[in-house]
Write a structure and sequence with these properties.
It is an enzyme of class 7 (translocase). GO terms for molecular function: ABC-type xenobiotic transporter activity; ATP binding; ATP hydrolysis activity. The chain is of the alpha/beta class. The chain folds into 2 domains: 6-225, 3-Layer(aba) Sandwich (Rossmann fold), CATH 3.40.50.300; 231-294, 2-Layer Sandwich (Alpha-Beta Plaits), CATH 3.30.70. It has helices at 44-51, 75-81, 97-107, 112-125, 141-153, 171-186, 198-204, 222-228, 241-250, 271-283, 298-306, 316-319, and strands at residues 6-15, 18-28, 33-37, 64-66, 69-70, 82-85, 159-163, 190-195, 207-212, 215-220, 233-237, 255-257, 262-266, 290-294. The strands form 3 sheets. Strands 6-7-8-3-9-10 form a 6-stranded mixed β-sheet, with helices on both faces. A 4-stranded antiparallel β-sheet has the order 2-1-4-5, with helices on one face. A hairpin with a 4-residue loop joins strand 12 (255-257) and strand 13 (262-266). Helix 3 packs across helix 4 (112-125) and helix 4 (112-125) crosses helix 5 (141-153). 38% of the residues are buried. The structure holds adenosine-5'-triphosphate (ATP).
């Protein structure tokens, strides 16, 4: 098995006596999107800054490897493997988009010809060719973010940290950014994304970690996280009142709605639970007209995990 692109054990970071990250464990497989979610001030940006070598972890931290290199002993090698964009944008507003790109190419020691080629390709890919000769200060928020990512890609990084890449963007620009992120991953790049938009994590991330109080409160796929909290249920709708009545007495823990002939019963939506419901209906010769599964959405998960509501212990498969 290959090394994860990012692997942190017991990552700690304090500012004075304020502990921001209190033993964070993360493993991000290569070529996947990992999203770190958390309320304002949870420490997301701090995690990005540590993992991208902008600040040092506390000495009490465990082993942290990024791109196969040790963060503490080989920070230069880590820097060569990664790109960072986000709240600390590298875009210089006084010069044009093209000049920003060429400057980046210079920093990466590309020849003039290579620099021009890469710049033209990336400006085209990010739909900035038309604006290339205008000062970056005249760009819209979405254009600036696209330029920022294009500049990061000049160095051909295998791992990209995106710190809140769509904050403040309108829905169209946000969707464009999502498309860009998906394309990066389809090229094999690993993306570490922080976001305050749960929908964004749900849409993009292979795995999500929820940061709360300096610790990872839970991590897993969006589906695994949704199964962690109560609120999921199965709804059965009938057109035949007799079938509805039989189902109401055959099933346990049902809530009945006699008017709409609908039954609702709590369920985590797992295959095992659905099978047991269907088996019970079958063995009583009952057929529902409609069966729908309702799982809590990520908003419910986020509030439950970061609002102090008790949640059940995380099952093994979600903790892996
Ligand atoms: N240089 C610093 N010195 C002291 N405290 C800091 C410093 N940088 C961040 N903090 C504190 O660390 C905590 C975490 O901040 P961080 O920016 O990592 O949170 P965040 O999850 O990214 O929040 P947001 O969603 O608001 O961007 C905050 O309480 C912040 O005040």
């Amino acid at each position: 098995m290959t090394d994860p692109a990012i692997a942190a054990n017991g990552l700690r970071k304090s500012y004075g006596d304020k502990t921001v990250l209190d033993g964070v464990d993360l493993a991000v497989p290569e070529g996947t999107i990992f999203s770190l979610l958390g309320p304002n001030g949870a420490g997301k940006t701090t995690a990005v800054k540590v993992l991208s070598t902008l600040i040092s972890p506390d000495p009490a931290s465990g082993r942290i490897r990024v791109g196969g290199h040790d963060l503490t002993t080989a920070p230069q090698a880590v820097r060569a493997a990664i790109g960072v964009t986000g709240q600390f944008s590298a875009v210089d507003g006084l010069i044009t988009g093209e000049e920003n790109m060429l400057l980046m190419a210079d920093l990466h020691h590309l020849s003039r010809l290579e620099g021009r080629q890469v710049t033209a390709e990336l400006l085209e890919r990010f739909d900035l060719t038309e604006a290339a000769k205008k000062p970056a200060s005249t760009y819209s928020g979405g254009m600036k973010r696209r330029l920022d990512i294009a500049m990061t890609l000049v160095g051909n990084p295998r791992i990209i940290f995106l710190d809140e890449p769509t904050t403040g963007l309108d829905p169209r620009s946000r969707h464009t950014m999502w498309q860009i992120i998906r394309e990066l991953v389809s090229d094999g790049v690993t993306v570490f994304l922080t976001t305050q938009y749960l929908e964004e994590a749900d849409e993009l991330a292979d795995r999500i970690a929820v940061l709360n109080d300096g610790k990872i409160a839970a991590q897993g796929t969006a589906e695994e996280l949704k199964r962690l909290i109560p609120g999921g249920h199965v709804r059965l709708r009938f057109t035949d009142p007799a079938a509805y009545q039989s189902a109401a007495s055959a099933l346990r823990e049902v809530t009945c709605d006699d008017e709409s002939l609908t039954l609702q019963l709590p369920s985590d939506g797992s295959q095992r639970e659905l099978r047991s419901i269907l088996d019970r209906l079958d063995s009583n010769g009952i057929e529902a007209d409609e069966l729908t599964v309702h799982t809590p959405d990520l908003d419910d998960v986020f509030f439950a995990l970061t609002g102090g509501t008790a949640i059940p212990t995380q099952p093994k498969e979600a903790a892996r």
